[in-house]
Every structure is written in C-alpha cells, then in structure tokens.
Structure prediction request, 439 residues.
Amino acid sequence: MKDILKKEIELISLSREEILKLSKVAKEFITSLKAEGLNAYVGGSLAKGTVIKGEGLFPSMDTSGEPQDVDIFVVFNYSEDIKKLEGILKKINLPGILKKVHGSRDYFQINCGTPKGIPPAQMASTDADKVGNALLEVIPVVKNNDPELAENVTDVSLSHVKYIGGEIKKNPKIADDIKLAKAFCRANRCYGAEGYARGFSGYSLEVLVIYFGGFVKFLKRIQKKRVIDPLKYFRSEREILSELNASKLNCPVVLIDPTYKYRNISAGLGLESFERFIDTAKKFLKSPSLKFFEKKDIDIEEIKKFAKSRKAKFIEIDLKTDRQDGDIAGTKMKKFLDFFAKELVRKQQKVLRKEFDYLGGKKAKGYLVVEEKMEIELRGPSVGLEEAVKNFKKAKGRKIFERKNYWWCKEKSGVAEVFKLVGKVEGEMGARMELGIGD
Prediction:
C-alpha cells in the first residue's frame, strides 16, 4: 500500500517548477489588479498546497496539455462594487484570453494555456514559458466576517483557504493524503460538486481527509460514519439533523463546515456517486493497485454485455444543449436524461442501468439498459363514476376493458413511444436527445 501511494503522489503532484510558474502568473496578475485599486488573493488548491495535475478539468477530457486551474479571489467591500471588475479586466494587459462565465454570481476565466494566435491586446506576452500553463478563474467575493450573512457561497471561500491551510501547517503530510483522495475520486467519477456530477467537492475531501487523519483512514471509516461534525459544533447527531435545513440533508453524507456550523458541505453529493465510491474503495483496500487511480471511462462493451445477459435493450443517447459550457450545460443534459429515465419507469419500462458522460462543451452521452414492455395496462375510474368513465372511454388508441369494478385500458408503450413523448418537452428542458437502440 505505501509503495503504491508513494508512486501515485509522484504521478499526480506538480513539480516545483510547475508550481513556481503557476504562482508567478497568478502573482503578476494580482499585481496588475492591485494597480487598479483591487485587492486579490490566490485561493483554491494552489493556495492550500493540495493541487493535483488536471484538477478542475472535465473527467472525460484528455488532460494532456490542458491548462491548470488557479483560483484568484477579488475581494470587494460591497456587492454593487463587483460590477466594475469586468471593465477593469478588459482594459488591463491579461496573460491570456478572457471569458465571462455565468453562475449564481458571474466570474471570469483567463486561459493562459493557449498562447498561439492570441491578439496582442488580449495578452501581455506570447511566451508560454513566461505565462505558464494556467487557467485563471477570477472570482469576485464580498468581504464578510459572518458566514451566515454571506450573500453568495463563494464569499466564504477565503475562510476555507484559511482553515485548510492552518490544518496543513499543523500536519504537512496530510496534503499528500488530500491529493490522493482527489485523484482517487476523480479517476472513479465521484469528484466534482457540479450538478451533473454530484460527487465530492474538493473542499469536502480536504475536510474529510483531515478529520479522519489520512487517505486510507478516510476510505475505511467513511463507510461507517455518515454524519460528521469536525469541530463538534453540535452535541449529537440528532441535534445536527434537527438544526440543519431539511433540504440540505437529502444526501448520503452530512459534513458540517468547520467555518460555518449550519452548512452541510456534502449537500450536493449524490447517492449514485457515493455508492460508486464506496464500492471502489472496498476493492482498493482489499487489493491495492495504481489502476484505481487511472481515469475510468464508461465501459460501453460491459454495459452491452449486461443488457444481453438480461435480454434487455441497450440504448445509447446523444445529448446536446445550447446552454453555457460547464456546470450549466452538463446539468441541463443530465436532468434531461434523468427525466427520460423517470418517464420510462412511469410507463412501466424497467430501467436496469443508467450512465451519464459529460464530454465537455455542449455535448454528452447517455447509456440506458431497459427491459422493454411494448404494451401496458392502466387503471381508470371505478365503474360507478359515470362522467369519469365517459371521459376515460373517449381517449383514442386504447383497448378498454372492465376488471374488478374498475375500467382499464391497454396502451402502446416501449422505449420509442416514451421517447416521442419526451421529445415534446425538449425546449422546456433546455436540451435535446438523439436515440440509438441496440439489440
């Protein structure tokens, strides 16, 4: 186990030279902001010392040659002052291409990893060695001393940096354990708080590894302890469950934020991601190997074999959207796939497997295995309800019959029929599908 983890740390850690390059471009950018009267700080994994190669990129993307995420927090005293940030960014020399990203609060990206062909007005230098391979995420935050009064969740991000940084200073070795946890979850498709991923956030993994005292201890103990209060803000689990907002408890792990007692850091963790994590963790602990840290693509052939073994339909779905790349696009397409799967179940089709793969940009893939039922029976009104029975019999394309004091009908169904119905709401869902059905 020790040899495997040591080797993995070597594979995922940035070199000293890479760290220096990222730090250099970040500091130079912050200096240019300070010249305009703005206070800014390096945040995220780079500031905490827990950054891994390719962090922040979509799990399905080839990360070779892609820029590395670096968070830059620009601190404002008042939320209305944030409006001036965009104008300042457009007028100063930037180390890359500027892009505005919409979210609960708009932020900006500066891609320093593609220096070729960038207009001089958008870039201070085209020297890749000088700017480093960085993707600066410029995040406006409002200064606050009380997390409860924060206008946006990003406003408490600096307190997260302070807490994690303080814990790592106490125990420097824990930083490597955090890196391992991120790499492990990323490889096994259970990393990322985006709506389409519903995995562990980077911050939640940092808190969990620190709480349990290491990566391996985290894998072992998270399987048994699902309500966690690192700083013991509450007297018992019962008090936690009664004090927190009920909407934040519908998740497999409740993890109290050390910087704010009424926030569950793991509220976005989905059951599918967590169960995948637990299953993989058990296998790794039983038989440790570097393969558990290698990115896992969805095994389409395995899904096809499973479908064949159950004499079920294998369905491959192309998903597209016109929404903003990233969390918004991915989440829209994932919700549409989930909606289709629920409609299949509602129409008495049995969904045995469901997989979603966000490809980046505005595209995704969905895979379903369905036990198909071509005709279904639906119960209507009781025989004594004359008006309801009359309306029930009006519906076209139904075979009506009576059974045990109720009227019933037989209706054509199946995957293709449900797909036609779902296709009518593509506009409302903000995504569209193309269906491919195998044997």
Observations:
- The two ends are 43 Å apart (CA to CA).
